[in-house]
TrEMBL record:
<feature type="transmembrane region" description="Helical">
    <location>
        <begin position="93"/>
        <end position="117"/>
    </location>
</feature>
<keyword id="KW-0547">Nucleotide-binding</keyword>
<feature type="transmembrane region" description="Helical">
    <location>
        <begin position="27"/>
        <end position="48"/>
    </location>
</feature>
<dbReference type="InterPro" id="IPR047770">
    <property type="entry name" value="RegB"/>
</dbReference>
<dbReference type="InterPro" id="IPR050980">
    <property type="entry name" value="2C_sensor_his_kinase"/>
</dbReference>
<keyword id="KW-1133">Transmembrane helix</keyword>
<keyword id="KW-1003">Cell membrane</keyword>
<keyword id="KW-0067">ATP-binding</keyword>
<dbReference type="InterPro" id="IPR005467">
    <property type="entry name" value="His_kinase_dom"/>
</dbReference>
<dbReference type="InterPro" id="IPR036890">
    <property type="entry name" value="HATPase_C_sf"/>
</dbReference>
<feature type="transmembrane region" description="Helical">
    <location>
        <begin position="54"/>
        <end position="73"/>
    </location>
</feature>
<keyword id="KW-0812">Transmembrane</keyword>
<dbReference type="InterPro" id="IPR003661">
    <property type="entry name" value="HisK_dim/P_dom"/>
</dbReference>
<dbReference type="InterPro" id="IPR036097">
    <property type="entry name" value="HisK_dim/P_sf"/>
</dbReference>
<feature type="transmembrane region" description="Helical">
    <location>
        <begin position="160"/>
        <end position="182"/>
    </location>
</feature>
<feature type="transmembrane region" description="Helical">
    <location>
        <begin position="129"/>
        <end position="148"/>
    </location>
</feature>
<feature type="domain" description="Histidine kinase">
    <location>
        <begin position="219"/>
        <end position="423"/>
    </location>
</feature>
Amino acid sequence: MSAPDGPAPSATLTRPRNPEPIRMRTVVLLRWVAIGGQLTAVIVARAMDIMFPWGPVLLLIAAAWAMNIWLFVNPPRRISPRLAVGQLAFDLVQISALIALTGGMSNPFALLVLAPVTVAATSLTSRQTLALGLATVVLITLTAMLAVPLHDAQGQPLKLAPMLTLAHWLALIIGVAFFGGYTHRVALELDQTSNALFATQMALAREQRLQHLGGVVAAAAHEMGTPLATIKLIAGELADELADRPDLRDDAMALQKSADRCGAILRSMGQAGKDDLMLRTAPLRAVLEDAASPHANRGPTVQIVADGPGIRRDPAVIHALRNLIQNAVDFAHSCVVIEGRESASHLTVTIRDDGPGYPSALLPRIGDPYLTSRRGGAQRGDYEGMGLGLFIAKTLLERSGARLTFANGGPGAMVTVRWPLHRILAEQRAPLGENPMFLP
């Protein structure tokens, strides 16, 4: 259990990404807001007698207006990543040209050139975001070099000092890298978390389907018991009556044996179904053995030390503990120890191994989805996890009321799961006692 890794999600558990990276109506709405802001700035500048090329500026605003009208009249059936990049590139060129015509770096609204790359970072791939970011850097540089200065009412140019112009240009370049990189990282982590939660829901749904299937099997075994008994009885009577017909009597006996075999199969299935359907509580040791059973013969010795009380046999808790035990077995050298103990107010389960332990740098972040792709492990040389197993386990156990602590020591990695007793103990059913006496 050295690295906070879990099994890599399979294709069946990975929720497909939205085929439309951004909705077209969102692009259109943002552009309408930009057009409104640009017109407002032009009107305010006109009222303040600030001079700049009115005609080209209004022509650029009209181009954005025409693009929105065209998208309204001819809406695309779906917006592909390429179309999204094209729309954001159009906005980038339009805003950059406006800034170049209205003072360049001396324009206080120059920071709006960061809007397209920020929008791209929330919805497009790393390559597309990087391409749009580089285009933004180029256009900001051209804007600073080719800017048309603003003039006041007396015709005096409104310019920044060269040092301030350089500083403003550098601030915008840093803004492209910071806002683009940070926004893309946050969007990517949110998407990964969403996929991991989807995998958790799939795992829980599988456990619930297995329980429901057990109930169906038990019901089928019960309902088919009577018809099979009838078939067996009739086959026996036919065998007795066909004593003088050996060929037919053999067929009747074969039918009787087949009915016996079906009855035995249904009895075993019915018992398993009843176990799945009815067993809602179990001793702590039994629950831990259930969670550890798939990994008992994978190499390292799995020791269970627990004499705790009866607890709720929750499929989510068992699945989560199984993930923690799997992680321990994957990285243990020779031994995994699972301990369960009860105190006056809490129930604690500790899982520790003798592996190399958690990487110190990742210890505070264990439980985050897709945390690492570190290779290693004594039992699986080709092991490559992504932290999803621990994320699922942490999510399920915290939902059950537990608190998890990850640490090194024991001598390898150690996970401590701690529940308040009232959240995990099974309901204790006592006899009803004597009926009360009602006196007239």
